[in-house]
Amino acid sequence: MAEEEKVEQIVRISLYTPLIYVAVMVTAFVIFSVQYKRHRFQKLIQTESLFGHNYTTDLYLTLKDKYYDKSLAKDERPPEKAVKAALLRRAVEAIRRSLKLKENETVFNKLYQDGLIGDDIFKQYELQNKIQQVELNEIVAECQQFSKEWPEKFFPVAQEICFNEALRRRLNSMDARGEKLVEMWSYYVDQTEAK
């Protein structure tokens, strides 16, 4: 009888094999995390604002750049009052947007809890809230560049302007609605008199 002897072979692994494995896994994880962050960043960039483009911010930044540009002649730079007025317009728009977001916060939360709006719209709302907070913080910092005491006086004035504009819009819409009702009423009166 020929017995086959079982020879156990010991597989020898190099010391570098686990190190290579760990290096490959770490590299794969780093590549995945970079791609994932890049993808999330692209989605954030492509997210549209709930309010549309903010032209008052663009106007202020343009005036501010020209105001602080030392290469321009003094008569070509905008006056300080124009820059402050543009900052005031920017603040009014930021306050208006913040008030709208706070006003609709319960509505968005309720709609999201009931499943009537998707995650993308709710994330858009949350992102807009964060953007508005950053915008207000930037405005405070810009105000402090002009004067340290200015933000204390600046925001009540901006809030007053915002409320006055809202009141003016409501009054104008009531006037337009009144004119439509007068036209409709006179049409019905003419129709009944013709019979």
UniProtKB/TrEMBL annotation:
Domain of life per record: Eukaryota
Keyword field: Membrane, Transmembrane, Transmembrane helix
Residue intervals passing through the bilayer: 15-34
Keyword check for Nucleotide-binding: no
Listed GO CC annotations: Sec62/Sec63 complex
GO biological process, one term: post-translational protein targeting to membrane, translocation
InterPro entries: Sec66 (IPR018624)
Protein name as it appears in the record: Translocation protein SEC66
